[in-house]
Specification:
Layout lengths: L3 H28 L6 H11 L4 H14 L7 H16 L6 H14 L4 H16 L1
Helix pairs in contact: 2-4, 4-6, 5-6
Length: 130
């Protein structure tokens, strides 16, 4: 019905219009880094921004919002306690009275880990004074 060049032109135009969609799909597939463990990402961010009060406060708020209770696995639990330690040892984030209040809140939310939380925060406060 139509000339061969017409069909060739149509196929070429469809390919040209579809190419950006295909490339965008491929790029988003390979460029996205899925965070397998958000607690690990938070630990990395806190250690990166130790001296930045604003970013540290953002990560602290994120921790309080998403990780109020301790995780079940031992590896995540150790990482969680490490984050509690990092937040408490840093004088930029909280004063000692605020740390004590936060300790009480964490102990109330995690009654099974009360002793570990108390020990970790006490260690952080001792190191903080030095």
């Amino acid at each position: 019905m139509f000339d061969t060049f017409f069909y060739l032109f149509c196929w070429l135009m469809m390919f040209m219009l579809g190419l950006p969609v295909i490339v965008a799909g491929i790029l988003t597939t390979y460029n996205t880094q899925t965070i397998k463990n958000p607690l690990q990402q938070l630990t990395q961010d806190v250690s990166t921004y130790k001296n930045n009060k604003e970013k540290l406060k953002i990560h602290y708020d994120d921790f309080c919002k998403n990780f109020r209770t301790c995780p079940d696995t031992k590896e995540d639990y150790e990482m969680w306690l490490g984050l509690v330690y990092e937040f408490c040892v840093n004088p930029l984030l909280m004063e000692a009275e605020a740390v004590a209040k936060w300790r009480d809140e964490l102990e109330n939310d995690n009654p099974n880990s009360k002793n570990e939380i108390r020990t970790k925060i006490a260690t952080a406060l001792q190191k903080r004074d030095k």
